[in-house]
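Q&A log
Question type: sequence-to-structure
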Amino acid sequence: MEATTYSNFRNKLKSYIDKATNDYEPITIIRKDNRNAVLISAEEYNNMKENQFILGNPNNLKWLEESKMQAENGDLAHHKLLEDEDE
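Response status: OK
Response body:
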């Protein structure tokens, strides 16, 4: 994770936004009062919020853990896909 001062961040705003959005590089913005901030892409932020929502629900977490154990144990099910009747 790259870190920069607030002044440098302000002067090179476009460059830092490009790093965050194109390279998925979080940027820590260091402030004098030690109230730092982090710049990340909207895509990365949305992924974090989605993971927080999914993993924050005990039922979802239990289902994911059970599914992972089944896959690791080779307990997989195969299903034939239905054909579209219009084709």
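Response note: The helical segments are 6-11, 13-22, 42-56, 58-72.
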